[in-house]
Amino acid sequence: MNEGEKSLNFIEHIIEEDLKNGFSKEDLRFRFPPEPNGYLHIGHASSICLNFGLGLRYNAPVNLRFDDTNPAKEEQEYVDAIKKDVSWLGYKWEHECFASDYFQKLYDWAIFLIKQNKAYVDSQSSDAMAEQKGTPTTPGVASPFRNRSVEENLDLFQRMKNGEFKEGEHVLRAKIDMTSSNMLMRDPIMYRILHKAHHRTNTDWCIYPMYDWTHGESDYLEQVSHSFCTLEFAMHRELYDWFLDQVYDESKTRPKQREFARRNLSHTVVSKRKLLKLVEEGVVKSWDDPRMPTISGMRRRGFTPESIRNFADTIGIAKRENLIDVSLLEFHVREHLNKIAPRVMGVLDPVKVVITNYPEGQEEWLDVENNPEDPDSGSRKIPFSREIYIEKADFREEANKKFFRLKLGKEVRLKGAYIIKAESCTKDTDGNITEIQCTYDTLSKSGSGTEESLRKVKGTLHWVSVQHAIESEIRLYDRLFTDESPDTHKDKDFMEFINPDSLQVIKGFVEPSLKDANIGDRFQFQRMGYFNIDTDSTPENLVFNKTVGLRDSWAKIQQKS
Question: Which UniProt keywords apply (predicted)?
């Protein structure tokens, strides 16, 4: 086995084996089949990267197909959001398809199965059918309607389609095997009555096909060669193949279903139902809230598509489910932003510094590099004046030798500016420091080439000029859940693990170069982390989201606890 073969995942091995056995590479076709009943999340991102990545690897088309068979939960809003997410991740689909495109063909095939005595209309309640289905260790019992005549089944199914019955009065079931060890094969439901408008077909249909009936036949109609889904559908494969057996033409490509394991992300949930609950109960503001594991939420928070693709590539494809630490995703975000994000200065918890020997009313514009990781990023001008803001945590009246920031009688360098020395400080009646008085070394300007500018001081601080600073809203995000796997506790609801401190909104000050920044622009606030401009931002009120810190602070918190 050569090096290239060793690096293949098990799904690629399946494809390679098929190609070796004579399957034509030109007939390879993949699909990503989301249901438009919510926004896509990080788990979907892995599936998107898998299917579209296979398309790129084999130069094969990939369809984007919406499995829109449940009008009670599906909306055009979700369709639009899904398309935006896939495009943002950097992928292009061959055809945009909908299961609803095939409603007529699926109906025609259902008629065919009835005529073949392989499907029948059942008029029992759902409770009765569930009871008759048996258990994994006991066989099911046949419905009293299982042996209806073909003529009666055709008549009832036609009237179901025409809207003559109420929801729940009848269903169409496949006639397979009520004693099968696979309970999914015990006469599964193919159609149910739903008097609800569909986002594409409106009220044209009063019956809607079930997922298992729709999925494989849609793959077949689109001539998808390999249909990849998550592990919970492994037991569905037998039914997938049985349905295909009924309609398959040997002159066409027969789809092959194979399964891979979900990749669950720590400190969050990836169930659409649970994510919807977070939205509906106001735990988060929307599907694209930056705390959400949705692709739109990650985009709004400032994640890059490259970092998500790199994350998906790192965790790979496996046959067993496991929990991936969210820190790994944040590592990839941090790694990519370090390369592309311009460095700027923002002070989030300000205290005023007055440089007493700097002339009042004077200002100067200093030249500062934008990104040392990118030689082509150039530089920008930032203003310096007598009064500046620094972080409160960067000053102490007294501190030990390990504190390399500003303290009384000691020096630090201001990034891109001068060396300053703390002389005194002013406090309020509660003992809080409200102002620090400093002097500066007039010859120590960074980059000036003077002997003083080359002096070594251990600390370098970020700062902004008080006169020029832009007051901004800063949104600091933390884990949405305090537990690493909040929805796996049998005796507790996942909502019990909501982190009450997942969002902190503060006022900070940023340098004036950010005045003309656009929504979505990403920056590194030096020494503070990576931030981007939120969609709520306006020219009058800049709003920044903290995307991720410069290092994994959560790991330190966990170690302490």
Answer: Aminoacyl-tRNA synthetase, ATP-binding, Cytoplasm, Ligase, Nucleotide-binding, Protein biosynthesis
Reply yes or no on whether 31 is catalytic.
no
pTM of the model: 0.92
In the chain, the percentage of residues whose pLDDT exceeds 70 is 97
| Domains present along the chain, CATH in parentheses | 121-209 (3.90.800.10), 346-461 (2.40.240.10), 472-559 (2.40.240.10)
**Which amino acid is present at 183?**
M
For the segment 540-552, the average pLDDT, to the nearest whole number, is 94
Rg (alpha carbons) of the chain, rounded to whole number: 31
Does 272 participate in catalysis according to the annotation? yes
Query: What is the β-pairing status of strands 460-461 and 433-440?
Result: unpaired
Amino acid present at 275: L
Strands 529-533 and 543-548: antiparallel
- For residue 129, give both structure tokens: 């059918």
Distances (CA, A) of 305 to 52, 89, 300, 329, 432: 14, 5, 12, 12, 44
Other CB atoms closer than 10 Å to residue 115's CB: what's the count? 13
- The phi and psi torsions of 178 (rounded to 5 degrees) equal -75, -5
Enter the tokens of residue 189.
């439901």
CB atoms inside a 10 Å sphere around CB 469: 22
Instruction: Count CB-CB contacts under 10 A for residue 310.
Output: 17
292-310 per-position pLDDT tens digit: 999 999 999 999 999 999 9
Long-range contacts of 535-543 (CB under 8 A, 24+ apart): 535/300, 539/515, 541/472, 541/473, 542/470, 542/472, 542/473, 542/510, 542/514, 542/515, 542/517, 543/472, 543/473, 543/474, 543/475
12, 35, 387, 473: which one is catalytic? 35
CA distances in angstroms from 303 to 298, 330, 333, 335, 344, listed in the order given: 5, 9, 6, 11, 18
From the candidates 263, 272, 413, 445, give the one annotated as an active-site residue: 272
Residue 326 · residue 356 · CB < 8 Å: no
Question: Residue type for 72, please?
Answer: A
Told to judge if 75 belongs to the known catalytic residues of this protein, a careful annotator would answer no
Q: What is the pLDDT of residues 266-282, one digit of tens each?
A: 999 999 999 999 999 99
In angstroms, the CA 173 to CA 177 distance is 11
Strand ranges for 469-542 from DSSP E = 470-477, 503-510, 522-525, 529-533
The dihedrals phi and psi of 294, each to the nearest 5 degrees, come to -70, 155
Q: What is the DSSP letter of 414?
A: E
Task: Look up residue 402 and give its two tokens.
Answer: 């390990």
Place of tokens 């579209």: 52
pLDDT in tens, 203-232: 999 999 999 999 999 999 999 999 999 999
The pair of structure tokens assigned to 128 is 């009765």
User: Which of 146, 159, 262, 527 is an active site residue?
Assistant: 262
